[in-house]
């Protein structure tokens, strides 16, 4: 009596050395437990899952950003950059981390601070942006980074990474521009406060989209402005400029607070570009027409 031939055990199409007793319900290829992807009916293989993702439009937020479940990488990166720059300036300073902006300040602090005479006479307009990554003390950077860590993730989730980064940087430059145009022509200014107040303004514009408590948010903003105008040594124009710029950028991206529809991406880009152009014109006019003291003293 002849022996019956045994059926060959199927092998996973991605791992030929593994037995596969399950088949993909879409392509019918055998798959091992590692390659099994749960589906509404049975299991799918990794290739079919990847193909399905390409054909399905990603979910988007109310402003058109791709909805992500990932951590707020941009917020974390901005905090990290500010901390790293602070440590560098502290190590370079004679007074250490407690006071990197004092008389024995670091070379990086000296080159990056917003000092109007140096900007005009040396054409070092990059200081309008780099000064937003400098801080005077541990309390200074701790307060700014705490607000960034609390408010940033919610705003980043709605705006998406690139819109959020644009809001932060343009608000920082807007704060610096206000200091440069309206502030003292002989005092140096540093700090991320312009960008932070820009986040406050954006959160206020998008408070409904963020799902935040308006009374809590308004209270925090009012409290910060009270400190701005009551504590000596705080850059008032930097806070005002950052707040106004952040509000304008938020409106350009998300629309007015009562708006329910989505602003088209092209209009978002045009709106932000117009804001940046206005800042550049204001900075340029002030630099060419303003009376600034000499680089090494008034």
How would you describe what is shown here?
The chain has 298 residues and is mainly α. The protein has helices at 46-55, 73-92, 107-112, 116-122, 127-130, 138-159, 161-182, 193-205, 207-210, 214-230, 236-254, 265-289, and strands at 22-23, 30-31, 37-38, 43-44. The strands form two sheets. A two-stranded antiparallel sheet has the order 1-2. It has a two-stranded antiparallel sheet with strand order 3-4. Helix 7 crosses helix 8 (193-205), helix 7 (161-182) packs antiparallel against helix 11 (236-254) and helix 7 (161-182) runs parallel beside helix 12. The model has no long low-confidence stretch (mean pLDDT 88).
Strand order of the largest sheet: 1-2
Report the β-strand fraction as a percent range.
under 5%
| Proportion of helical residues | 55-70%
Give the overall shape.
elongated
Number of strands: 4
Poorly predicted runs are none
Task: Write down the overall mean pLDDT.
Answer: 88
- Structural class label: mainly alpha
Rounded radius of gyration (Å)? 27 Å
Topology pattern, helix = H, strand = E: EEEEHHHHHHHHHHHH
Q: Biggest sheet, in brief? A: 2 strands, antiparallel
Please report the number of helical segments.
12
Gap from first CA to last CA: 113 Å
């Amino acid at each position: 009596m002849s022996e019956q031939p045994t059926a060959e055990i199927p092998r996973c199409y991605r791992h030929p050395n593994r037995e596969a007793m399950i088949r993909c319900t879409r392509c019918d290829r055998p798959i091992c437990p590692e390659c099994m992807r749960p589906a509404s009916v049975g299991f799918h293989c990794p290739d079919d899952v990847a193909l399905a993702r390409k054909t399905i439009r990603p979910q988007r937020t109310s402003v058109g950003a791709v909805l992500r479940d990932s951590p707020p990488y941009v917020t974390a990166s901005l905090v990290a950059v500010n901390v790293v720059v602070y440590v560098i300036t502290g190590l370079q300073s004679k007074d250490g981390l407690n006071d990197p902006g004092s008389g024995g300040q670091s070379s990086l602090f000296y080159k990056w601070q917003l000092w109007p005479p140096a900007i005009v006479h040396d054409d070092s307009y990059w200081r309008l942006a780099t000064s937003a990554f400098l801080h005077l003390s541990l309390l200074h950077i701790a307060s700014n980074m705490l607000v960034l860590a609390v408010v940033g993730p919610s705003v980043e989730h709605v705006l998406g990474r690139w819109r959020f980064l644009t809001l932060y940087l343009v608000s920082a430059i807007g704060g610096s521009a206000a200091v440069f145009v309206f502030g003292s022509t002989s005092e140096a200014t540093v700090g991320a406060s312009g960008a932070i107040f820009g986040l406050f303004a954006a959160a206020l514009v998008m408070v409904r989209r963020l799902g935040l408590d308006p009374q809590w948010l308004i209270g925090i903003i009012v409290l910060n402005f009270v400190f701005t105008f009551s504590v000596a040594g705080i850059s008032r124009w930097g806070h005002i400029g950052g707040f106004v710029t952040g509000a304008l950028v938020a409106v350009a991206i998300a629309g007015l607070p009562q708006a329910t529809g989505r602003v088209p991406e092209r209009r978002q880009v045009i709106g932000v570009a117009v804001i940046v152009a206005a800042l550049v014109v204001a900075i340029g006019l002030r630099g060419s027409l303003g009376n600034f003291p000499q680089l090494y003293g008034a």
